[in-house]
Amino acid sequence: MPEAQVPASQGSIMDREGLQALLDVLTSRGFGVVGPRVRDEAVVYEPIRNVADLPEGWTDRQDGGRYRLERREDRALFGYAVGPHSWKQFLFPSRQRLWQARRTETGLEFLEEPSRDERWAFLGVRACELCAIAIQDRVFLGGVHRDRSYAERRQRVFVVAVQCAEPSGTCFCVSMQAGPKATCGFDLALTELLHAGSHRFLVEAGSRVGQEVLAAIPHRPANEDERRAAEKVTALAAARMGRTLETRGIRELLQSHPEHPRWEEVASRCLSCGNCTMVCPTCFCSTVEDHSDLSGKHTERMRLWDSCFTLGFSYLHGGSVRKEIRSRYRQWMTHKLSTWFDQFGSSGCVGCGRCITWCPVGIDITEEARAMRSSLPEETAHV
Hints:
By secondary structure, the protein is of the alpha+beta class.
């Protein structure tokens, strides 16, 4: 987990060779570097070792229910928005064994899962994703009951953020105050600068460990023009958001209208497939399953991702509480934008737009909020 933020520096400059040196230094320090690469016609997060593994010259085009990669006219390494993957897959795995037990001659022996010693370096984390990780930190580490597995993974992560230059058509991080500029939560932050044939990165250290790593790679102080160019990158990104969401009064709006007719309208389109919750970087619902072998000598308990859109998620003795898609969509959206405040002190949405892009029928959470608000009298729509 990144340490307390150090005072912001004026920034340093490194080139592509410096980026490769960064990967080499992180590897030599025992980190497994995970970053963006192209696979199955999408940008996904997977282990990388070389700059050549990055999605050079690729960008993405996203809209409701649509995603495709296109070639850029330059050699940008981070010239895309976000893909279907989020970093939670490494901190909160989709499938994890919690414990196992076996029958021995002396009785039943429980085997707790051993601590993991893997260390990850995340390369290419966007501002919205940093906010998502911070939200999951509150979920899994806040309060009395800390998730041990999450804590072990989280404390060994080195974060290399990349300032966003290419928001997608479904991004609305500005509305959620989650981007596009990363200001905290990272060890190093890169801004990719492409101008007149040159390819450089402005680097800022956000922690003591980040400063140590930066000192081990070739770099030089940034000049005033380079600092201004870096600021322009995120300023232009902020001006090109694909979506907006009016957050004023959204918490009260959703809690006060559980029978609004819009819930029925969106339910007529929703497939209740759970795609939105699987790609969401903040959703944390899970279930447990117990498995035994045929001999009856071994059993194990697994934790798996689950979704509030599945019929069985709200199952109690006698049946499911939320039998209709209308109530399941209402639960998801109201929790994400409203009751999350009551639990964790913030919104559960960072405006990454994944739920819009990867919804098979293109349901748009920003449009649903807008439609609900616009149908109400002005004096109640912004309570």
